[in-house]
Fold this sequence. Notes:
Layout lengths: L1 E4 L4 H7 L5 H7 L1 H14 L3 E7 L9 E7 L2 H27 L3
Parallel strand pairs: 1-2
Antiparallel strand pairs: 2-3
Amino acid sequence: GVxxxxxxxxxxxxxxxxxxxxxxxxxxxxxxxxxxQMNMLTxxxxxxxxxxxxxxxxxxxxxHWTICYAVPEDMQLAIDVMEKAKHYRDQILNEWMFNKK
Length: 101
């Protein structure tokens, strides 16, 4: 899979160009890191390409990409958080639908 970003602000593309691994992605933009990890979890893949493209840059700097690998510990953390969220949602729905106050 591939996650491609085309940042409006060129400074973001500059930061994306520093990314060489999933650890770098997590440090530079944790939202994108979790997006990539969740995509791998959803599609049961062990690697995903993160890319940044800015057509305003010189040709040799327009496209940057790196391969990010699955981090099982973080995937498990995401699964645990989703389970808690599901439980919380179910609790709210049950209270709303079956509470006759």
